[in-house]
Amino acid sequence: MAKNFIQMNETFNAPVSTVFAELSDHEKMGKVLGAKVKRIKDGKGNVNGIGSVRRLTPVPLADFEETVTGFEPNKLIEYTVTKGSPIKNHLGRMVFSESNGKTHLHYTIQFDMKLGIPFTGFLLKTVLEKVISSGLHKLAKSYA
Q1: Are 2 and 112 spatial neighbours (Cβ–Cβ below 8 Å)?
Q2: Is pTM, for the whole model, over 0.85?
Q3: Rounded-to-10 torsion of CA 38, 42, 48, 53
Q4: Distance between terminal CA atoms of the chain?
Q5: How does pLDDT run along the chain (144 residues), one tens digit per residue?
Q6: In whole angstroms, what is the distance from residue 59 CA to residue 36 CA?
Q7: 4-142 adopts what CATH topology?
Q8: Rounded-to-integer distance, Cα 22 and Cα 119, Å
Q9: What residue segments make up the domains of the chain, in order of their start?
Q10: CA atoms of 130 and 136, how far apart (whole Å)
């Protein structure tokens, strides 16, 4: 397992098809994260599916790319950072399930830092967890 591990859970008062559609669409996910996100390569079978590449720009001049490596509609999205980041061994995994018309999202991110500068992994983990959790919580409140 990677040295840095983030685990988030969120419940949405909406069917899984609605939440999955929101979080699998690269540009819509950018709104959730509060970052500029642009799909730069379409996936096979689904524009946001396996092989799809998105460029994220969380702050000006700090962009990186993620590639979707796993995609099962209404069930799973997996992705990895493939360009322009100070991290390695990255895996983002979003698992969706539905019960009584509500969607549960289990979201994990794991990564290592490329450089061995002390505490940088912890700092990045803390920022990612706060930003993503906040965005997911706001999205969940929009379905209330």
Answers
A1: yes
A2: yes
A3: -50
A4: 36
A5: 568 999 999 999 999 999 999 999 999 999 998 889 999 999 999 999 999 999 998 877 779 999 999 999 999 999 999 999 889 999 999 999 999 999 999 999 999 998 877 888 899 999 999 999 999 999 999 998
A6: 8
A7: Alpha-D-Glucose-1,6-Bisphosphate; Chain A, domain 4 (3.30.530)
A8: 33
A9: 4-142
A10: 10
